[in-house]
Amino acid sequence: GSSRLPIACKYKDYFFVGPMNGIFDMVFEEKPYCVDISNHPYILRPTSNTFHGRDIFAPASAWIHKLRTIDFLGPKINYQHSLDIPKPVLKDNAIEGSILFYDRFGNAITNVGCTKIKYAFIEDKKIEYFEYFSQAPKNTPGITCGSFGYFEFFINQGSFKEFSYAKSFKLIL
Questions:
Q1: Does 84 map to a domain?
Q2: Does residue 1 lie within any of the structural domains?
Q3: Could you tell me if 141 and 125 are in contact, meaning their C-beta atoms sit under 8 angstroms apart?
Q4: pTM of the model
Q5: Which domain holds residue 51?
Q6: In-domain check, residue 83
Q7: CA nearest neighbour of 17 among 48, 58, 45
Q8: How many domains does the chain have?
Q9: Residues in CB range of 28: below 8 A, 6 or more apart
């Protein structure tokens, strides 16, 4: 629960339900169709201040699954991106990207969607592309396509976060 607006959105062929707090910013590359679900007719009453997932989002999700639309849940609204996520830049047969965060294993998650690359440079160090982590020799840095469809820097059986504090990199196409 919070004061953030509860919303339901349709983007491409998918439905999303949650608070308008930036959680969908990386998914919505273009403006989605969204509705305000703060007063939808299927909210569990009384609505708890701490369990919006149970009282607002779960019932809305169930009805969306059943009816395959969001129009009945509330009035149309404009989705507002709230996170300042840097965009990758294509320049001279390379992509310049940013490291957004490190996961709990020390892998560096980037803002660049997976595509075919030759290798990467980070802090003037050449980083090879590997299909999966264990393909790289032990304690060797690499780059791979992560499970969310974005490039990730890693060290096989180690932490990339301990290897580099760089915030930007270059992918060679």
A1: no
A2: no
A3: yes
A4: 0.71
A5: 6-77
A6: no
A7: 58
A8: 2
A9: 9, 11, 79, 81
Give residue-wise pLDDT tens across range 37-96.
Answer: 998 888 888 888 888 999 999 999 999 999 999 999 999 999 998 888 888 999 999 999
The position carrying tokens 């779960």 is: 58
127's CB contacts (< 8 A; 6+ apart) are 119, 120, 121, 141, 142, 143, 153, 169
Taking alpha carbons only, the member of 151, 150, 97, 102 closest to residue 128 is 151
Establish if 119 belongs to a structural domain: yes
The phi, psi pair for 60, rounded to 5°, reads: -60, -45
Q: Mind listing the pLDDT tens digit for each residue in 118-143? A: 999 998 899 999 999 999 999 999 99
Considering 52, 77, 102, which residue would you say is the last residue of a domain? 77
Q: Looking at the structure, do residues 15 and 54 belong to the same domain, yes or no?
A: yes
Strands 108-113 and 150-155: antiparallel
DSSP sequence for 126-165: EEEB-SSGGGSPTT-EEEEE-TTSEEEEEETTS-HHHH--
